[in-house]
Fold this protein.
Amino acid sequence: MKAVCTEISKPGMPYGFGPEILRCARHFADLQDDRQKADYDPSATVTVDDAHSAVTKAEESMRDFAAAPEPQRRLFLTLLHFRPRP
């Protein structure tokens, strides 16, 4: 999922996503990185502010997703479930 979100977020991708889906994809990739660091990096320090920031980012992502046009939401979810062929 993270790889697809990262790919979707790149400039010039052919999917034609609007800003809501692009932000949602970027936030998903960022939150996944944060989670990996928190779970697997013993030297990582996660503060309460970090947690609040992650929750805010997740809430913004859900609002962005809900605000996107339905065809873009469907395409985004389809790409998350079924990777595009090269």
